[in-house]
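In this section we turn from sequence analysis to structure. A common task in structural bioinformatics is to predict how a protein folds when a small molecule is present, because the ligand can shape the pocket around it. The inputs are simple: the amino acid sequence and a SMILES string for the ligand, here flavin-adenine dinucleotide. Study the lines below before reading on.
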Amino acid sequence: MEIDDALRVAEAVNKQGMSVSLDSLGESVTSESEAHKAAEVYHRLLDAIATRKLNANVSVKLTQMGLLLSPGLAEEIAENLVEHARSVENFVRIDMEDSSLTQITLDIVRRLNAKPGLHGAVGTVIQSYLYRSQADVEVLLSEGIRIRLCKGAYKEPPEVAFPKKLDVDANYLRLTWMLLDSPVFHGLATHDEKMIAAANRFAAEHGIDRSRYEFQMLFGVRRDLQRQLVKDGYNVRVYVPFGHEWYPYFMRRLAERPANVFFLAKNLLRK
Ligand SMILES: Cc1cc2nc3c(=O)[nH]c(=O)nc-3n(C[C@H](O)[C@H](O)[C@H](O)COP(=O)(O)OP(=O)(O)OC[C@H]3O[C@@H](n4cnc5c(N)ncnc54)[C@H](O)[C@@H]3O)c2cc1C
């Protein structure tokens, strides 16, 4: 899928009443010029989203912006993207990668969000499988930073992450309460009906309007659930990955659910 295909998908998803986050696939670039090239795709996306009046933002990985080559380079590139997003009234979501990058990712997001004029134009992702996440949520909330909450997609050791799914889920709910209780607009990224139902129950019990948060799901995954949520009046954002560098993305999704092999092969390899 190329930029134009991704924009067409975004338009179609918008027509179904859902917003979009566009992710130009790729991570861990090996040269400065590759990082700039990757950023260029996002600059084009931000302009195209504005021109076509799409209800879409962008999701960016800092390793794709050169984080492993030079944190300064990644921060500078990310800052340019956030400035661009702000100028077209849009938003940059900085995806969260493996736990060796959690601290530097949060540091960069917090610095960008604190820059004059950029507050609210950048947000990040918290993974409920990490022990540290509750403390990270507290810090981000105290600075009014928008959070996407997910369970986490990387293979992490028991020193940093809950090994048991039960604990990851329990922490997901604990963190969901914290996000819903805050005045900032957040995203709950999950296809897990138990998490979704519990979030909506909590919101209803605490008088939190459904317009104050959104659910986020992967393009094509649990379309039935996506449609039902829209029908019930909830905000749903669909994450649309596109581009040539599908391999690491594909392998993570595959590790999560072997059944994904068919779905992803169909969607990511389709021209
Ligand atoms: C919008 C979005 C953005 C994300 N961003 C990040 C990120 O920045 N960093 C990161 O580490 N991870 C990210 N993830 C991945 C996330 O961490 C999980 O790995 C992934 O969402 C699976 O967890 P789950 O909450 O859906 O529930 P799980 O507990 O894995 O699954 C619960 C149920 O959901 C359904 N389900 C889940 N996944 C699938 C699937 N692929 N196909 C069909 N059914 C499925 C099944 O019914 C399953 O039983 C993101 C996920 C989404 C949706």
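The chain has ten helices and eight strands. As an exercise, try to locate the residues that line the flavin-adenine dinucleotide site and compare them with your own expectations.
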